[in-house]
Design goal:
4 strands, mainly alpha, 284 residues, single chain, 2 domains, two-stranded antiparallel ribbon
């Protein structure tokens, strides 16, 4: 998809749909990021206005208008440059992310588990991020939150940011599948080892940029295998970003053509191309 096509699909309210219909936060943020990365900052202004108007009093953002709850999409919005989103709005979004954690990491949950005699699994020693507040942490929202906080650390280094990023990365390393790569959540499910998925493997590798570990090396091998056979645009985008983050993406690597079903997939594809040329919003 070209930037021109992306602009034609913008809704009158300034946002974007997943395919058609009303505006949602995720496709709108990806579209604005793609426009900004291409230098079309003026064209992104209406989308930014829609995003600004959607911020909730607690500093986070909902998945769409009418939802009275801040969610994981706050991490995507925190990837926007503070000067375009607004310094104060951006700072409140970062604070919301810093205060968000999976339910299994809260004191009340851990106390209850201790009182009923449940041993604490090794994979729960570090806190990740959930899709929605007061639910369990998952790989994808954790990876996106690490990317957003790492960008903020590049602008304003602090021990608090560094500590939360490190904890999140340990969460990912502990959740790596035994064969390499990442599932959506647990290492084991119903007494069986979880199998990795291509999109979550790519997302985790992107968030673990600069980290050297056996888990990362195994995941890079798995990601290379996934890339040669994947048939999902979302998987293709994130696998390329994950391999790129570790300098492992070769020229022309991957399947030649995949259909994009949603605006999010199309916009992310544009961002992958920008990142490959040395731009993009995912790392400094």
């Amino acid at each position: 998809m070209s930037i021109e096509t992306l602009l034609r699909k913008q809704n009158r309210d300034g946002g974007w749909p997943y395919v058609r219909g009303g505006s949602w936060t995720e496709p709108t943020v990806y579209a604005v990021l793609a426009l900004a990365a291409s230098g079309a900052t003026a064209e992104a202004a209406r989308g930014l206005g829609w995003i600004r108007a959607s911020q909730r009093p607690d500093g986070g953002w909902p998945p769409c208008p009418g939802v009275e709850q801040s969610t994981w999409v706050t991490a995507l919005i925190a990837l926007l440059p503070p000067e375009s989103l607004g310094e104060e709005r951006h700072a409140r979004g970062i604070e919301w992310l810093l205060g968000s954690t999976g339910r299994e990491s809260t004191f009340v949950y851990r106390l209850r588990e201790w009182l009923i005699g449940n041993a604490r699994p090794r994979e729960l020693e570090f806190a990740g991020w959930p899709w929605f507040p007061e639910t369990a942490a998952w790989v994808a929202p954790t990876a996106l939150s690490i990317l957003a906080l790492d960008k903020e650390f590049g602008r304003h280094p602090s021990r608090r940011l560094a500590g939360r990023i490190e904890t999140g990365r340990h969460f990912l390393l502990r959740r790596a599948c035994h064969e390499g790569g990442w599932n959506h959540g647990s290492v084991r499910d119903l007494a069986y080892d979880s199998r990795p998925y291509p999109e979550t493997t790519g997302m985790a590798l992107t968030a673990l940029r600069g980290v050297e570990s056996p888990q990362v090396e195994r995941a890079l091998a798995v990601a290379g295998d996934f890339l040669g056979q994947c048939r999902s645009a979302d998987a293709l985008n994130w696998l390329r970003l994950g391999l790129m983050a570790h300098g492992r993406l070769g020229a022309g690597q991957g399947p030649p053509e995949i259909a994009f079903r949603t605006l999010s997939e199309s916009s992310l594809s544009l961002l992958v191309a920008q990142t490959r040329q040395g731009g993009g919003p995912f790392w400094s």
